[in-house]
Recover the amino acids of this structure.
């Protein structure tokens, strides 16, 4: 890095002791650094020495956001819906009654999820 002087460094994945060495060297050259990891023990090093840091699941969401591939975007949206509704919404409707109009509620959720995907 010191010889070639790159304009940008992308560090993505799991790093160990070399993380701080790489990012400090990149920061000293003045390169823009973007790091992404889901390793909790590397986050302090990346946050302090990199310009942008993708933390945890956001590193996976970044590729779907940038590529705009419908399958990846749909997968992320489905995961977000599942995280918001952890009790399986198809077992009860919005009033708490078992079954009821739950199928229509699930269909509405799925429609809202994919209505703007082209």
């Amino acid at each position: 890095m010191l010889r070639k002087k790159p304009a940008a460094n992308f560090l993505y994945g799991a790093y160990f002791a070399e993380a701080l060495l790489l990012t400090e060297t990149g920061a000293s050259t003045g390169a823009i650094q973007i790091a992404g990891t889901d390793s909790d023990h590397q986050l302090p090093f990346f946050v302090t020495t990199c310009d942008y840091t993708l933390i945890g699941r956001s590193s996976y969401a970044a590729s779907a956001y940038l590529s705009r591939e419908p399958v990846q975007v749909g997968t992320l949206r489905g995961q977000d819906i599942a995280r918001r509704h952890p009790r399986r919404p198809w077992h009860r409707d919005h009033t708490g009654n078992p079954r009821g109009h739950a199928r229509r509620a699930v269909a509405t959720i799925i429609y809202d999820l994919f209505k703007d995907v082209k």
Summary: The beta strands are 8-12, 32-37, 52-55.
